């Protein structure tokens, strides 16, 4: 399974709107390494998006990402997508309750560690993407306690995750690209604001599933043929 498929799901979502400001900023140039030492890898390019913890800002982020993709500004779109990508530590620190057992944390770490990494900016930008005709963005939210009861507009796995992992009182979001007037499309789940940026925890309900078979070389998302 490739990275875009891992994070992409269908659900019925409600609408939240408005816009926020965005200005593209150049990335900082890496500092030269001291003589005799290998050069440090370049820091990820900043998208310039002003992350704010509101539904309106999250909707604006997804609309801006679509605009960047349509304009073929893959470098900035890639940077924006990568700012949303989770790590086990980021999710544990900001979204999980403090008493989550170590074995559960290890499962989440394995889920994220096994995600395939896109090879270039264009591939990264497509990790979050709706079809050409999906020009509207829908956003729905729920607090952990609501999700633990089973949210009608989110996947069933969210209920299990809320019961066992998510921090009480915290708000989580689903975002969807849809055709005008429709509610079914490409959905992305368990987004939260970590105090500085939006993060997409994704399908955490898959963390306790058996690991998939290794992908065949050069064919991400496809299982290798059995000998």
Give descriptors for this structure:
four-stranded antiparallel sheet; 227 residues; 31% helix; alpha+beta; 12% strand
Explain what you see.
It is a single chain. By secondary structure, this protein is of the alpha+beta class. It has one domain. Helix content is 31%, strand content 12%. A hairpin with a 6-residue loop joins strand 2 and strand 3 (185-193). The longest helix has 16 residues, at 55-70. The radius of gyration is 18 Å and the shape is globular.
Kindly report the spatial arrangement of strands forming the biggest sheet: 1-2-3-4
Tally of discrete structural domains: 1
> How big is the Rg?
18 Å
The biggest beta sheet, please? 4 strands, antiparallel
Number of strands: 4
**Average of the residue pLDDT scores:** 80
- Category from helices, strands and their pairing: alpha+beta
List the helices and strands and how they pair.
Elements lengths: L2 H5 L47 H16 L3 H11 L3 H8 L6 H12 L7 H5 L10 E8 H5 L8 H8 L6 E8 L6 E9 L4 E3 L27
Antiparallel strand pairs: 1-2, 2-3, 3-4
Helix pairs in contact: 2-3
At a glance:
With 227 residues, the protein is of the alpha+beta class. It is built from eight helices and four strands; from the N terminus they run H-H-H-H-H-H-E-H-H-E-E-E.
């Amino acid at each position: 399974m490739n990275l875009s498929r891992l994070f992409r799901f269908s659900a019925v979502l409600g609408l939240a709107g408005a816009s926020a400001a965005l200005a593209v900023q150049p990335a900082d140039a890496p500092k030269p390494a001291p003589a005799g030492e290998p050069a440090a890898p370049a820091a990820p390019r900043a998208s310039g998006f002003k992350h704010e913890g509101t539904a309106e800002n999250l909707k604006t982020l997804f609309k801006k990402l679509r605009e960047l993709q349509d304009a073929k500004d893959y470098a900035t779109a890639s940077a924006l997508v990568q700012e949303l990508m989770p790590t086990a530590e980021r999710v544990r620190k900001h979204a999980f309750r403090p008493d989550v057992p170590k074995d559960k944390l290890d499962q989440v770490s394995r889920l994220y560690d096994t995600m395939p990494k896109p090879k270039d900016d264009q591939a990264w930008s497509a990790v979050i993407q709706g079809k050409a005709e999906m020009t509207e963005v829908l956003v729905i939210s729920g607090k952990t306690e609501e999700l633990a009861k089973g949210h009608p507009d989110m996947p069933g796995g969210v209920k299990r995750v809320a019961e066992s992992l998510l921090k009480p009182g915290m708000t989580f979001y689903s975002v969807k690209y849809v055709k005008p007037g429709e509610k079914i499309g490409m959905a992305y789940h368990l987004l939260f604001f970590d105090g500085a940026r939006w993060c997409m925890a994704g399908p955490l309900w898959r963390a306790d599933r058996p690991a998939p078979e290794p992908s065949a070389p050069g064919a991400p998302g496809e299982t290798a043929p059995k000998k």
